[in-house]
Amino acid sequence: MSSLADFMVSRLAEALSDYNALVKSLERYQEVLISEYKQRRSYMVGKEPGSKFLIIGDLHGDLDTLKKILNKVDVSVMKGCKELELTFLGDYIDRGPNQLETILTVLELKAEFPECVTILRGNHEPPPFLIPSPHDFPHELRLLFGYEKGTNIYAKFQELFSSMPLVQYVNKTFVALHGGLPTENYRREVTLVEFFMGVSEDQFNRLLTEILWNDPIDITNVDRKPSPRGAGYLFGSSVTNWFLGKYNFKFVVRGHEPAYEGFKLNHNGRVVTLFSRVGEPYFNKRAAYMFVDTSAEISLKDIKSYVKVID
Ligand SMILES: [Mn+2]
């Protein structure tokens, strides 16, 4: 048996060997993301149920935890994309010790197994109009490569960020995104694609902000209220229940918020938060990820049993 972690370590060393190799790798990743975007013509990845999914939350430069998770996967199950799909919920960089290695590992996985790896965009993979704080990744690159080369590499990463999908869904099963359900189209008669992507560029930018920044709130009788983060909204269980009922999904899985045990449940278990990194500046005890077999019936009352924690 050869673990996916060992396999990725050698690929990562190649991509990182020098500046020119890195630029070439980034261009290769961009080709993969852009060709998929052109095929879908949307920032949504839709699937039919049938596969097993391993879902990973915020990493923020925690390469060690990512390796621990990938260690549990045999590389052979990824070949041919028949047995397992990987979904990443965004926030690969900022605030962590191995930001570049972490995002390159994720991108390399995408390039190696394009049909069974989905890398969603987080708010730390930002558009220029919505930079989070801190956003130390560009500084990190300039420290590593010098000002000019570091700036060039960051520009290539910005192209990658804007090519990443925002939402993955598996019909009748789950919706995965970084922050939360957008509230703007709550209770409106719109298609699933319109619900997330809107019908104009202005609306798309508002929905993008919500998808990347929203958090669930458990206070009843609140549909939405502005987020204390300064961007996005807090969305109530009314939004979740309406959304899941109307579009026929069982639950929403998202990252974005640290959780002491690596995960938390909101809205009666219908919103699962995964946080897949440990260490400063966060104080969570564990990292978590999720394993969902979409060929089997989903039991909402056992939703916790789909979550795996690592110490
Ligand atoms: Mn986030």
UniProtKB/TrEMBL annotation:
Q: Name one GO molecular function term.
A: hydrolase activity
Q: Name one Pfam family in it.
A: Metallophos
Q: Which InterPro entries match?
A: Calcineurin-like_PHP, Metallo-depent_PP-like, PP1_catalytic_subunit, Ser/Thr-sp_prot-phosphatase
Per the record, the coiled-coil ranges are none
Residue span(s) of domain Serine/threonine specific protein phosphatases: 120-125
Cite the Gene3D superfamilies for this sequence.
3.60.21.10
Q: What is this protein called?
A: Serine/threonine specific protein phosphatases domain-containing protein
**Where does this protein come from, organism-wise?**
Zestosphaera tikiterensis
